[in-house]
Design brief:
Its cofactor is Mg(2+); Mn(2+). Belongs to the acetokinase family. By secondary structure, the protein is an alpha/beta fold. It has 2 domains: 149 residues, ATPase, nucleotide binding domain (Nucleotidyltransferase, domain 5), CATH 3.30.420.40; 183 residues, 2-Layer Sandwich (Nucleotidyltransferase, domain 5). It contains 15 helices and 14 strands. An 8-stranded mixed beta sheet has the order 5-4-3-2-1-6-8-7, with helices on both faces. The protein has a 6-stranded mixed beta sheet with strand order 11-10-9-12-14-13, with helices on both faces. A hairpin with a 2-residue loop joins strand 4 and strand 5. The two termini are 14 Å apart. The model has no long low-confidence stretch (mean pLDDT 92).
């Protein structure tokens, strides 16, 4: 049995699990929410016992140190020497990484070089990798890539309408993100529907501070909302989502900038729900603020509208869907947003049962006369990561 520590560092949260493989037994798990925001929330679960505390603002590095400390104090391990491997979710692998890899210095340097493909994530993930290399010296570390799931996208959805020579020479394409989650959701949906995945059309929605939507046709990814970088698709916590590309030189001129870096940073870190509302990037804050604040209400409406637009487009693109899947922090925990999205899709004959939706239990949420199933499936990127790391370790042996 191998104890693997899994680190899933996102733009606003850090999830972790200590898993015993190959039994897939979760020894301890937790989540640090509201990273870099006042009132960071630290949750830990061991043996069915849950604890929650609100602390001063934590960043990703101080959150990692707290996780390691909690592993010992809550009984996950007696000593950190029991951790035999670390697996990291890495957002952007570009065309270099098509599957999980063991992290060695040259590969870590390659991850740094890919930072422009995921400016909010890859630099952060490299920091976590380097910190854990110090804290857990000698423990092998592995990377599992979000982008790997989308390497097989058909060219007609994977590339942009730019000169084809640019596409090939500079490897410009839709890389997609949240692939670990979308793959897990598709597999779980197939089990839930008791059908072979190869026979299913699905639309999986990973809706959180980072949000992406994927169309699955005949069991394989066919299209996805994030593109060359994770800033595209629907608006998110701090990311703009799709904008006219000429917005960048336009703002450079208006702001008297000589390089685009400031605008790109603002599109990634100061836009989306935060930028429109002026209140917060957190959906929970926006629901409360929207009672009196018109900009907060506008941000919520824009988010729902953009999700509906993409889901509706994917529905026609793949010739209908057997099921729509909600996951992610918003998708799993926000019945108001789920209801609004499905209401926006009513023209397609998709309906949600209001009682089931409010209850928010894993499983089917659709009304009896809905044309497609509506599933709530909590994503488990960490389990998918553990399987990838375990397979790689077995191949090494």
């Amino acid at each position: 049995m191998t104890k693997i520590l899994l680190i899933n560092a996102g733009s606003s949260s850090l999830k972790w699990q200590l898993v015993k493989m190959p039994a897939e037994h979760v020894i301890a798990s937790g989540q640090v929410e509201r990273l870099n925001l006042p009132g960071t929330i630290v949750k830990v679960e061991v043996g069915g016992k849950k604890t929650k505390e609100v602390v001063e603002t934590l960043d990703e590095i101080t959150a990692i140190d707290r996780v390691l400390k909690r592993l010992i104090t809550v009984g996950g391990v007696e000593t950190l020497d029991e951790v035999e491997a670390v697996g990291h979710r890495v957002v952007a692998g570009g065309t270099l990484f098509k599957g999980p890899v063991k992290l060695i210095p040259s590969r870590i340097n390659q991850l740094k070089e890919l930072s422009e493909l995921a400016p909010l994530h890859n630099p952060l993930e490299v920091k976590c990798i380097e910190l854990l290399a110090q804290r857990l010296s000698g423990v092998p570390q592995y990377a599992v890539f979000d982008s790997a799931y989308f390497h097989g996208l058909p060219e007609k959805t994977a590339i942009y309408g730019i000169p084809y020579e640019w596409t090939k020479k500079y490897q410009i394409r839709r890389y997609g993100e949240h692939g670990i989650s979308h793959q897990f959701l598709a597999q779980q949906a197939a089990e839930m529907l008791d059908k072979p995945l190869s026979e299913l059309n699905l639309i999986t929605m990973h809706l959180g501070s980072g949000a992406s939507i994927t169309a699955v046709k005949d069991g394989k990814p066919f299209d996805t909302s994030m593109g060359l970088t994770p800033v595209t698709g629907v608006m998110m916590g701090t990311r703009s989502g799709d904008v006219d590309p000429t917005l960048v030189p336009y703002l450079m001129k208006r702001l008297d900038l000589e390089t685009p870096e400031v605008v790109i940073q603002e599109l990634n870190a100061s836009s989306g729900l935060l930028g429109v509302s002026g209140v917060s990037s957190d959906m929970r804050d926006l629901h409360e603020a929207a009672k009196k604040n018109s900009r907060a209400k506008l941000a919520l409406d824009m988010f729902v509208t953009q999700v509906v637009k993409l889901v509706g487009g994917y529905y026609t693109e793949i010739g209908g869907a057997d099921a729509l899947v909600f996951a992610g922090g918003i998708g799993e925990k926000d019945p108001e947003i789920r209801q609004a999205i499905i209401d926006g899709l009513s023209i397609l004959g998709i309906k949600i049962d209001a009682t089931l939706n409010v209850a928010g239990n894993t499983g089917s949420l659709e009304a009896t006369d809905s044309r497609a199933k509506v599933l709530l499936i909590p994503t488990n990127e960490e389990l998918a990561m553990a399987r990838g790391v375990q397979q790689l370790m077995e191949n090494e042996g």
